């Protein structure tokens, strides 16, 4: 009996050692120390015909394209954040529920023109697309999990718009201890005054708000 017990214990120990050696092979997954997070550059927010057009958003497309190109050259991960809302408005922010009721079509509903990422910023094969339902790209999404698995330390934000989704995402990124950079040429608001006010606030929080040229000079 002693021999049998010893054999069983040895077998279990070996099995556990094998499990521990292979249970978390995270070093074998894709890695990137920096990620560009492109926020809400969808037709309903960018195009003039969109339900919630941000006046300054379309003008930032060339800067976002340039930022993404630079990121690809340096092997940064490109992550698109998109709003995806049910036609009922069940998952939308409470103040925007009226956009989904009384026969209204809502916005950013999957399968609609408004939900699509704007022309010129179509994700490539290895890019990631993460859905969200609130302002912050981190709130109840997979974003933090993905960034940590990648090994990302620095996030560079682009997209729209400053007081809502850019600022909410930047604040949460800083709270999660990512080095947080807002590329000011690649973000937008309804007016330049709104943009400047939010940049002022974020800088005072400790969030880096710098131009595309400064991003290129500072990060490789």
From TrEMBL:
<dbReference type="InterPro" id="IPR036380">
    <property type="entry name" value="Isochorismatase-like_sf"/>
</dbReference>
<keyword id="KW-0378">Hydrolase</keyword>
<dbReference type="InterPro" id="IPR000868">
    <property type="entry name" value="Isochorismatase-like_dom"/>
</dbReference>
<dbReference type="GO" id="GO:0016787">
    <property type="term" value="F:hydrolase activity"/>
</dbReference>
<dbReference type="Pfam" id="PF00857">
    <property type="entry name" value="Isochorismatase"/>
</dbReference>
<protein>
    <submittedName>
        <fullName>Cysteine hydrolase</fullName>
    </submittedName>
</protein>
């Amino acid at each position: 009996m002693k021999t049998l017990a010893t054999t069983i214990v040895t077998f279990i120990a070996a099995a556990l050692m094998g499990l521990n050696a292979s249970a978390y092979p995270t070093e074998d997954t894709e890695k990137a120390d920096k990620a560009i997070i492109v926020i809400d550059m969808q037709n309903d927010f960018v195009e003039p015909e969109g339900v919630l057009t941000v006046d300054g958003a379309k003008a930032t497309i060339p800067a976002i394209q340039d930022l993404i190109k630079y990121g690809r050259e340096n092997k940064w991960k490109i992550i698109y954040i998109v709003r995806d809302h049910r036609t009922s408005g069940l998952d939308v922010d409470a103040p925007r529920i009226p956009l989904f009721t009384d026969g209204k079509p809502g916005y950013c509903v999957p399968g609609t023109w408004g939900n699509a990422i704007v022309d010129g910023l179509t994700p490539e094969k290895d890019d990631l697309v993460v859905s969200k339902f609130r302002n912050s790209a981190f709130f109840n999404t997979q974003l933090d999990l993905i960034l940590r698995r990648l090994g990302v330390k620095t996030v560079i934000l682009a997209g729209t718009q400053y007081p809502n989704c850019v600022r909410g995402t930047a604040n949460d990124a800083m709270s999660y201890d990512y080095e947080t950079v807002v590329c000011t040429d690649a973000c937008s608001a309804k007016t330049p005054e709104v943009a400047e006010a939010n940049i002022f606030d974020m800088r005072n929080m400790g969030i880096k708000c710098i131009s595309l040229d400064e991003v290129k000079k500072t990060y490789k």
